[in-house]
Amino acid sequence: MRSVIRVCFVCLGNICRSPIAEGIFRRLVAEAELGSAFEVDSAGTAGYHAGEAPDVRARAAGQRAGFVVAGQARQFLVGDLARFDYVIAMDASNQAELTRLAGSVEGASKVRLLRSFDPEASPRAPIPDPYYGGDQDFDEVVTLCDAACRQLLGRIRTEHGL
Ligand code: 4NP
């Protein structure tokens, strides 16, 4: 039996962008009837919102787009770098922090920027932080995450023959 593929989305606080990406990816995996092949999670490089539910604006944006934004914020741990097969950062700052945690660029080989999978985006393009924004900014996060997550799932399916 093939082993489960573990994917973790990472932002700063784990209450806005990464729970949105997680919810979108979960929906895509479910639509593809691949739920049993994946473990999907999210985390923040910072721990100051640990234990909190996703931001109410993130949950509302998910509701508007027809997917569930749920879970409880947690800080990304060094051990997560070994545990997950794909560690997907939302912006260059998250990616730099993950590389620092890994101790080397080689150690961070599983770390990728989400939008680097989107052929429409430049390779270093971020999912912009919506925390100080409004509903429109959260809807934009959903649009950008959805486009990139579709490509990410396609890439993983190709890599694993799914
Ligand atoms: P996230 O957004 O990293 O997408 O969850 C943020 C959440 C909290 C803060 C900043 C960004 N904060 O400064 O508390």
Characterise this structure:
With 162 residues, the chain is an alpha/beta fold. It has one domain: Response regulator (Rossmann fold). Helices cover 41% and strands 13% of the residues. The chain has a 4-stranded parallel beta sheet with strand order 2-1-3-4, sandwiched between helices. Strand 1, helix 1 and strand 2 form a beta-alpha-beta unit. Helix 1 crosses helix 5 and helix 2 crosses helix 5. The longest helix is centred in the C-terminal third of the chain and has 26 residues. The structure holds 4-nitrophenyl phosphate. 4-nitrophenyl phosphate binds next to loops.
Structural domains: how many: 1
Helical amount: 40-55%
Radius of gyration from the CA trace? 14 Å
Total number of strands: 4
The SSE string, one letter per element, is EHEHHEHEH
Count of separate DSSP helical elements: 5
Average pLDDT value?
96
CATH domain class: Alpha Beta
Q: What would you give as the CATH superfamily?
A: Response regulator
Shape: globular
Which molecules other than protein and nucleic acid are bound?
Answer: 4-nitrophenyl phosphate
Q: Strand-residue fraction?
A: 5-15%
Enter the CATH topology name.
Rossmann fold
Spatial ordering of strands, largest sheet: 2-1-3-4
Instruction: Using the 3D structure, state the CATH architecture.
Output: 3-Layer(aba) Sandwich
Distance between the termini: 13 Å
Q: What class would the helix/strand composition place it in?
A: alpha/beta
